[in-house]
């Protein structure tokens, strides 16, 4: 017979597995279908008002946590009890878990707009939990009895003796019974002993009589197999819980995101001229669709930020620290702006650039409200996941459309691109300006603070370098001789692109035709026709910005402050 503690442990772990699996399923079906939450919700609904008031008074904001904690404690006690009972007859365990399941299902079904699918997490959780319990108890009662467990090395009776004092209340934990050679003393060396006995089941032989004295036939009890099973169960329960919470958090944030109604902008973007998009096959469209927009960040798991609890704190070198909620932000005058973002790690000719219409609150407006101090020269912004950008104050305050952005191309900011709020600053690389999931802005100084990438070998300041790229043809393309359109984009954010030149086989530079642009903050399409002749050809591009700077041939790698050089492709013409 398995000792009571072992049954309780198996019950607890099986309960954990049940909840983990339920959590995982709830992550897919909907967080509110997690039975613990559903039972908690029912409890809240059934609680008389005076008790509720008492709870809120006593626990304040933690009232939900206390409630869920209470439900979990009750569940743990009942699960342990089920485990103890199931040692005698496994049907007790199944019945106990089924009772659990019924309570969970009823709780879920009483929720508003509950569907049949919503009981799935509870049902699957209970089923897997019941299986886990019987599996653990089967292991505990000596795999020796089972066909698969053969050979003298198997734990069988010998290991039964290793039921030691490691676990409180164990009946065999009698130091005097141990052979001296096992090195055990009541005060010390327990873990050393445990390791040793795990290696040699021999010491157990000596202990068996003590076990027998406990009055039960413990030859069938296999502590080691139970504990390895328990360890496995704990891992499964933990992993399922973490994964389920991840998925569930994602769902909750997705739901909140879908529920956001974007206010009308107070300041509209300048109209995009009809000639901004040359509509050439293979050429990047003037506006990059959200799903095509490059994504660069350090987040292994995309932060899931609930807009209802999101806050933006502005503090540091300001007269009046400010704290804004998402609702506060949506009530402020919103500015719409077309801005091309670029990543400093973009290689010449690379894909880390995209142009979108952003909607947001001007950062300068918020900073003025806070009372920016004159000695400040850096905004150290921090994201929900701890990433930081250091942005020059003068750039943000010089009148350009630097935004705390809430929307991208008419859509609430996608989670990947920083929902609920990110920064967008025309003219600066993303790593010094474009903090996604931003939650904190410390007004400070470059000589006092450092942002994420600075100690990693990147420049503290990152103005975007004027660049141009050939989108079509692609390098390595095989073309037919005759008229070929070469086209691409060029950018010099907040300065503007004034000219793009193309040359073939290092001959003379020719002026490309420039598309129209609404302003200096976006990239600019260009195109040029070329009479392709048979053979292998090299095509190069360079841009000149409105400040009169022409891209240099000199190649520099992206680190520390952006690549330079001319985008060069080769094509074959037949
Ligand atoms: N929280 C956070 N924000 C971040 C980053 C990051 O790693 N974490 N990377 C920055 C960099 S390097 C760039 S280029 C832009 C990219 O923005 P996107 O992913 O929306 O294109 O985000 C910036 N904002
Ligand atoms: Mo970047």
TrEMBL record:
<feature type="transmembrane region" description="Helical">
    <location>
        <begin position="91"/>
        <end position="109"/>
    </location>
</feature>
<feature type="domain" description="Oxidoreductase molybdopterin-binding">
    <location>
        <begin position="301"/>
        <end position="450"/>
    </location>
</feature>
<keyword id="KW-0812">Transmembrane</keyword>
<keyword id="KW-1133">Transmembrane helix</keyword>
<feature type="transmembrane region" description="Helical">
    <location>
        <begin position="115"/>
        <end position="137"/>
    </location>
</feature>
<dbReference type="Pfam" id="PF00174">
    <property type="entry name" value="Oxidored_molyb"/>
</dbReference>
<dbReference type="InterPro" id="IPR000572">
    <property type="entry name" value="OxRdtase_Mopterin-bd_dom"/>
</dbReference>
<feature type="transmembrane region" description="Helical">
    <location>
        <begin position="65"/>
        <end position="84"/>
    </location>
</feature>
<feature type="compositionally biased region" description="Basic and acidic residues">
    <location>
        <begin position="190"/>
        <end position="207"/>
    </location>
</feature>
<dbReference type="InterPro" id="IPR014756">
    <property type="entry name" value="Ig_E-set"/>
</dbReference>
<dbReference type="Pfam" id="PF17957">
    <property type="entry name" value="Big_7"/>
</dbReference>
<feature type="transmembrane region" description="Helical">
    <location>
        <begin position="226"/>
        <end position="244"/>
    </location>
</feature>
<feature type="region of interest" description="Disordered">
    <location>
        <begin position="144"/>
        <end position="207"/>
    </location>
</feature>
<keyword id="KW-0472">Membrane</keyword>
<protein>
    <submittedName>
        <fullName>Sulfite oxidase</fullName>
    </submittedName>
</protein>
<dbReference type="InterPro" id="IPR036374">
    <property type="entry name" value="OxRdtase_Mopterin-bd_sf"/>
</dbReference>
<feature type="compositionally biased region" description="Low complexity">
    <location>
        <begin position="144"/>
        <end position="160"/>
    </location>
</feature>
């Amino acid at each position: 017979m398995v000792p009571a503690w072992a049954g309780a442990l198996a019950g607890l772990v099986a309960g954990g597995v049940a909840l983990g699996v339920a959590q995982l399923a709830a992550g897919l079906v909907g967080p509110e279908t997690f039975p613990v939450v559903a039972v908690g919700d029912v409890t809240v609904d059934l609680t008389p008002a005076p008790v509720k008031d008492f709870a809120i008074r006593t626990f304040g904001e933690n009232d939900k946590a206390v409630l869920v904690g209470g439900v979990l404690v009750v569940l743990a006690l009942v699960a342990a009890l089920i485990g103890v009972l199931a040692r005698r007859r496994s049907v007790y365990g199944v019945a106990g878990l089924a009772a659990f399941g019924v309570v969970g299902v009823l709780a879920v079904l009483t929720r508003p707009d509950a569907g049949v699918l919503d009981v799935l997490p509870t049902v699957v959780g209970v089923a897997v939990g019941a299986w886990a319990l019987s599996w653990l108890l089967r292991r505990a009662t000596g795999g020796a009895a089972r066909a698969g467990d053969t050979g003298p090395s198997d734990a069988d009776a010998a290991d039964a003796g290793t039921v030691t004092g490691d676990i409180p209340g164990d009946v065999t934990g009698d130091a005097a019974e141990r052979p001296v050679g096992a090195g055990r003393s009541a005060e010390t060396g327990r873990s050393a002993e445990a390791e040793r006995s795990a290696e040699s089941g021999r010491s157990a032989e000596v202990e068996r009589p003590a076990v027998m004295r406990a009055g039960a036939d413990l030859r069938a009890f296999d502590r080691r197999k139970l504990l390895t099973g328990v360890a496995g169960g704990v891992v499964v329960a933990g992993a399922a819980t973490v994964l389920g919470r991840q998925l569930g958090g994602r769902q909750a944030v997705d739901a909140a995101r879908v529920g956001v109604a974007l206010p009308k902008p107070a300041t509209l973007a300048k109209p995009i001229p009809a000639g901004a998009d040359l509509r050439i096959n293979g050429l990047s469209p003037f506006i990059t669709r959200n799903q095509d927009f490059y994504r660069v960040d350090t987040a292994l798991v995309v932060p899931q930020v609930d807009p209802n609890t999101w806050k933006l704190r502005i503090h540091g070198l300001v007269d009046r620290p400010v704290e804004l909620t998402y609702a506060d932000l949506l009530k402020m005058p919103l500015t719409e702006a077309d801005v091309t973002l670029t990543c400093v790690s973009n290689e010449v000719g690379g894909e880390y650039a995209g142009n979108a219409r952003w909607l947001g609150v001007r950062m300068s407006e918020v900073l003025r409200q806070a009372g920016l101090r004159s000695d400040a020269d850096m905004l150290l912004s921090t994201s929900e996941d701890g990433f930081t950008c250091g942005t020059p104050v003068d750039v943000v305050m010089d009148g350009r459309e630097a935004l705390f952005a809430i929307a991208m191309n008419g859509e609430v900011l996608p989670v990947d691109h920083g929902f609920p709020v990110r920064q967008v600053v025309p003219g600066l690389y993303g790593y010094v300006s474009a903090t996604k999931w931003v939650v904190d802005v410390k007004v400070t100084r470059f000589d006092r603070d450092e942002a994420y990438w600075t100690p990693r070998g990147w420049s503290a300041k990152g103005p975007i370098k004027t660049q141009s790229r050939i989108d079509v043809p692609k390098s390595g393309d095989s073309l037919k001789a005759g008229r070929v359109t070469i086209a691409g984009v060029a950018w010099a954010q907040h300065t503007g692109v004034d000219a793009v030149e193309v040359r073939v086989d290092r001959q003379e530079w020719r002026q490309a035709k420039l598309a129209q642009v609404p302003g200096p903050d976006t990239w600019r399409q260009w195109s040029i026709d070329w009479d392709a002749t048979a053979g292998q050809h090299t095509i190069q591009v360079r841009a000149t910005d409105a400040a009169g700077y022409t891209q240099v041939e000199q190649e520099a790698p992206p680190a520390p402050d952006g690549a330079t050089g001319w985008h060069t492709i080769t094509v074959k013409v037949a």
